[in-house]
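so the lab meeting is tmrw and i was supposed to have these ready like two days ago... anyway. pasting both below. for each one the top line is the aa sequence and the line under it is the structure tokens. i havent really looked at them closely yet so no promises
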Amino acid sequence: MDPAALLAQMPFAVTAGVELHSASPAEVTGRLPWAPERCTAGGVLHGGALMTLADTVGAVCAFLNLPPGATTSTLASATSLLRAVRGGAAHATARPLHVGRSTIVVLTEVTDDDGRPVASVTQTQAVLGPA
């Protein structure tokens, strides 16, 4: 599916500066460039910005694994922040851990430009039937 079209459906992610690079049911990738307006003290990319990146790519991954006519909503999201990002960009890769009838669990790994771990996020998404 077209990453730009998927991202366009998520206005907050667009406003936050998230970019999607690839999107398939098996893997979704994206990035968030470092920018001073996305930082906390000391020029460190804000944890909430990293979580926005991870939530975005994770949600797209869950969406792409839904059965026809279903929608999704986040039930839980657990984030471990591992390293500061002080420049460059944060890169995220989301992959499904479990695709079931009632839930989808997605693991999103966030790295820096050197491939070092920045964050690990596990999301549990509800599979909601047609309204």
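ok protien two:
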Amino acid sequence: MAAACSPAADTAAKDSTAAAAAATATGNVIPGVEVLLTDSLHLLKGKKVGLLTNHSGRNRAGESTVDLLFKAEGVNLVALYGPEHGIRGEAKAGEKISSGVDEKTGVKVYSLYGTVETPTADMVKDIDVLVYDIQDVGARVYTYEWTLALAMEAAKKPIVILDRPNPIRADVIEGNILELPFRSLVGQHAVALRYGLTVGELMRYLVETKAINAQLTVVPMKNYTRSMWFDETGIPRVNPSPNLRTLDAELLYPGTVFFEGTNATEGRGTDSPFTLIGAAYLKDNVAMAAELNALKLPGVQFDTATRTIEAGYKFGGETIPMISVKVTDRNTVRPVEVGIRLLRAFYAAHPQEFKWREPSANAAGRIRGIDRLAGTDKLTKAVEANTVDELIKQWDADAAKFRDLVKPYLIYQ
């Protein structure tokens, strides 16, 4: 079932809670790691294997891919590589991770999030093949897929991706294509913000269009279709990172993540990150929610909330007013537009208090965080000039262009 990078690679609502319960009972998607162990282990047998993974790399029974490969007959697991949040997924966003040894297996762990983001020659000298197994979230601003992209280029070894679902559907694309001068670990290549691909398809597209130079094999899932939400797959949910705790949060993330680049909070330090947006100065949250609801954005409703923010985050220790974004129809939500409209509402209501976060003095390239997240500086300009309607049209055209670009590289129907 291993699909190399070639066109021959083939494999086979309004109430989100009710839909999830029904879907989970019927889904039967088999993730790439189980396909590998069932009929594609020849890809690794007799080879020294490096594994880039974290806590989300596991089979449906909850067994870690680290342990599965360590025990697999004929497989010699010699190195582990950890992305943001570490191998066990417990570190906070942005927290630097150090290298070490996996306590359970005794295998060396190399951190790819901290002082080193790209594997050095010494880190990969002892492996014959690099395997990747991490649950993606379908958003360009997530670091995991770009840690993989950097490793694919640097390792100069065959790459095997154990594919997993795009949790927010692999048939919906939204947002702009990244402009390469703004590339970073939250966007390395020219792809759409909500890119509508599995990670295997994303890397297949980048390899076959020569954006990445690597020898790639994708081990596809079985029984997966592009229109599936994660809770329709039957695969048990594991939070892909500490602050993405629900499927609704993952759906809104491609838009509400923009607030990481502002002095307002994206909800970190609350019980509902990326569905709560607020600031100490947001005393008019009732009026703002009403204004946003008047836009009649599809699939969402805006409400008000108050939260005490956990120490260590923006407004830590303070009780602040917030806007709550509720998903009412996940099949029609346009999360990128939601994020843009929220930014404009904050800017318009609080032009003095609302700020874009400036880069630190030692930041590489001195590109503002908001521009790295957006993959362009056009977003901030549109928010400030009140031209977001025109920007959204431009970004919709980008999404349509990207949809056409990736069609030849899709693995699933």
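from a quick look at the 2nd one: Residues 85 and 91 are 4 Å apart (CA to CA). The longest helix spans residues 388-406. will dig more after coffe
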